[in-house]
Amino acid sequence: MFHRNIKLIIAGLIIATGIWQFTESNIGNGIFLILLSAIPIFLYFKNEFILLAFLKLRKQDFEGAKKWLAYIKNPETALVQKQQGYFNYLHGIMLSQTNINQAEKYFKKAIELGLSMDMDLAVAKLNLAGVAMTRRRKLEATSLLNEAKKLDKQNMLKDQIVMMKEQMKKI
């Protein structure tokens, strides 16, 4: 919605107003404004459109997620590096259903930019392993599967990893 620097300026103005309220002996207003400033600071690190796209993906609404991501016009300038990674990660997930060539490009870019959660990184590497397997690049697929297995600490992807290893034995 707002550029990331504008969010910081808004947070700074709210904090300055809160401090002014403290000096005017309006302690309640000052506390409220200081707490209110946490919203733009939070949205600086977590883009609101990416959060809404994640919510749509949880409901398997790919078109809705695509709509929310379309609101981000210039991801290189409007987002911090981790947000750019998640922007590419979400595009990769949506395209993995239809166009694996594009999805591979987005997943590689997401891994390059960085993802903050190990589970997201494991899913990206698992999808890249699937793409490598369909292209008969067994060595690359094996290394990506091993990396995904290391990153999957809660064993949520265990079944998919075992299934892909079984399919690789057939190749």
Automatic annotation (TrEMBL):
Gene3D superfamilies for the chain: Tetratricopeptide repeat domain
Residues spanning the membrane: 31-55
InterPro entries, alphabetized: TPR-like_helical_dom_sf (IPR011990)
Keyword field: Membrane, Transmembrane, Transmembrane helix
Protein name in UniProt: DUF2892 domain-containing protein
Source species: Flavobacterium caseinilyticum
Lineage per the UniProt record: Bacteria, Pseudomonadati, Bacteroidota, Flavobacteriia, Flavobacteriales
